[in-house]
Amino acid sequence: QVQLVETGGGLVQPGGSLRLSCAASGSIFSIYAMGWYRQAPGKQRELVAGITTGGRTNYVDSVKGRFTISRDNAMHTVDLQMNSLKAEDTGVYYCNRYLSDVNYPWGQGTQVTVSS
User: Fold this and answer.
1) For 77-113, how does the pLDDT look when each residue is reduced to its tens digit (9 = 90+)?
2) Is 30 left (phi over 0), alpha (psi -120 to 50) or beta?
3) Residue 73 burial (CB < 10 Å; 0-12/13-18/19+)?
4) With contact defined as beta carbons under 8 Å apart, do 67 and 56 qualify?
């Protein structure tokens, strides 16, 4: 069973930055497209950024120009650099498969809170 572990969340002020990291057992990130998902309080989980095995990226409109997703196949990680954070970015961030109907079991996620 593949394990997904998200780290890097925390409490930041509006306009601040955070860098999230997703790690998985094995070398699955070199094989599958991966994405970052966000679940805001009281809302459904949504895809915010995705990256293919070839490095092609896609972002939800609300984070374009502020977030950057990247992958390091050798280190088996998928990262999310978040700049110019807003209160609306608050939520629990998860990583999982992208462009697939079949996902791995969800990890615990990492909490991101943007507040002054």
Assistant:
1) 899 999 999 999 999 999 999 999 888 999 999 999 9
2) alpha
3) middle
4) no
